[in-house]
Automatic annotation (TrEMBL):
Protein name (record): Acetate kinase
Organism in which the protein naturally occurs: Mobiluncus porci
UniProt record, GO biological process: acetate metabolic process; acetyl-CoA biosynthetic process
PANTHER family per UniProt: ACETATE KINASE, ACETATE KINASE-RELATED
Cofactor remark: Mg(2+). Can also accept Mn(2+).
Pathway given in the UniProt record: Metabolic intermediate biosynthesis; acetyl-CoA biosynthesis; acetyl-CoA from acetate: step 1/2
GN (gene name): ackA
Active site: 148
Amino acid sequence: MNQQTIFVINSGSSSLKYQLIEPVSGDVLAKGLAERIGTDRGEVTHIVHGEKHTDTLPLPTHKEALNHIIDLFKENGPDLDHVGLAGFGHRIVQGGWYFKGAAIVNDDVHAKITELCDLAPLHNPAHLIGIDTAMELWPDLPHIAVFDTAFFADLPEKTRTYALDKETAHKYRIRRYGAHGTSHEFVSGTVCDYLGKDTVRQITLHLGNGASACAELGRKAIDTSMGLTPLEGLVMGTRTGDIDPAVVFHLLRKGMNVEEIDTLFNKKSGMLGLCGDNDMRDVWQRRDDGDSDALLALQVYQNRLLKYIGAYTFELGGLDVLTFTAGIGENDARTRYRLCEKLEFIGVKIDKELNENRDPSKSVWRISTEDSKVLVLVVPTNEELAIARQAIRLI
Ligand code: ADP
């Protein structure tokens, strides 16, 4: 068998997503999700050939979840012994100052990911559980850690440095690490491939529940909106994005504790906090029904985006390509239109027809007119494929 496949794992604290991918063609042989791990009402969904197989069962730990996933592969295919499984790609949110690229997991890499839990307390510990469990079940295959932050490891010092007391920043390793790097790298690289050149000044907008903007010169990130953590930057589904840090001091003085403020900023703010909904489809619906909270939420969301596009256009010294990706970026024609409309003065001309009629077979979809000075694109992101490709390259 010549085919080689990679098993991509994205392990969260109570969930584990997986895809079995053929990295060259991008074909997904199977994918699925284990949810509510740690409870006796766990659920595992395995999708193969478009067919969904779902089981509900107790899933006390990630090990039972992965074992059940293996059972579902045995029952419904494909046979993991006959798919040319070359190794595992593990998504890791925080690679800190250590990782400029993917790394084969060994004791040293494991220890570094563990050390970085401090910077990503919600994510890295859960990724390690995924790694440990998979390594226990498949000890003879290589396990590759692919970091969300690696694309930003080489951000210029002037964009990665906060204007914070130097010693404090150094002592606690406080800098902009960014996030969504796997997606921005995939999308900006796809744009360069599409244009056949690496010299473009581009902005990629990853607009999902989490959202970030990135300015790239060709394939290299020069600034990004997420910072020490994925809280900074754009308005998101449930996160504030940029906010005066003094709001924290104020709330502390008013009696809230750090955990409460953390939850408020990360889980109860953003679109949800502004209008009560974080799914953009619901927000638009409510705005159409005349809801003033939804209208204001959309205005705040779009204005923040506009600010970042403006800042990055100046940082780049002009703009050649603007690209939308992720759930909202790929599907929300109105958000794209509203934004592009405001960019007319820098030469952006959006084609209404193209914007509203996406051809899903295309990996790059132009929505600007032929004579637009800035090329505006939609490029569906594919983080799992990017992880599989980075893993196979290293293997
Ligand atoms: P994440 O991976 O960060 O959870 P996604 O990239 O899957 O998020 O994006 C999820 C968001 O995409 C949803 O919250 C929803 O607001 C938005 N979305 C999906 N489809 C549409 C659509 N047709 N119109 C507007 N928004 C959409």
